[in-house]
Design a protein that fits this description.
four-stranded mixed beta sheet; 4 strands; globular
Length: about 120
């Protein structure tokens, strides 16, 4: 399988932001998940479906600053994997489909977002 690579612009909601929303309104967290998952799905349009499983995922999170801890940033993998499934790029996000997930964190004040690389393991 060829390596699939694409970029989702913008910063995703962090875990701390999601918890705060959840504590303020019982529907707020569900709305964030819906919006963020849909954003990932729309950005994955045009990415061909994975043919070889399991896959290795490499995500480079580009943030405007260091105000959020890496674990709070990486929480958004849930939105991304669900969006990739909704877009038809991944069939599932189970152990049989996803072998590894590697996170890297960088600062890019001009172009925050997340670079996603999907590699088949066959």
């Amino acid at each position: 399988m060829a390596t699939l690579e694409f970029f989702i612009p913008g910063e995703f909601t962090t875990l701390n932001e999601w918890i705060a929303a959840s504590n303020s309104n019982r529907h707020a967290a569900a709305q964030i998940k819906k919006v963020e998952t849909r954003r990932a799905q729309l950005q994955a349009r045009g990415v061909p479906p994975v043919q070889e499983y399991p896959v290795d995922l490499e995500l480079t999170w580009y943030r405007e600053n260091r105000k959020s801890d890496p674990d709070n940033i990486a929480f958004a993998i849930k939105f991304i994997l669900d969006g990739l499934q909704a877009a038809g790029v991944l069939r599932q996000d189970t152990w049989a489909s996803v072998r590894t997930i590697c996170h890297r964190f960088e600062i890019d004040k001009q172009n925050p977002g997340v670079q996603i690389v999907i590699k088949g393991r066959g």
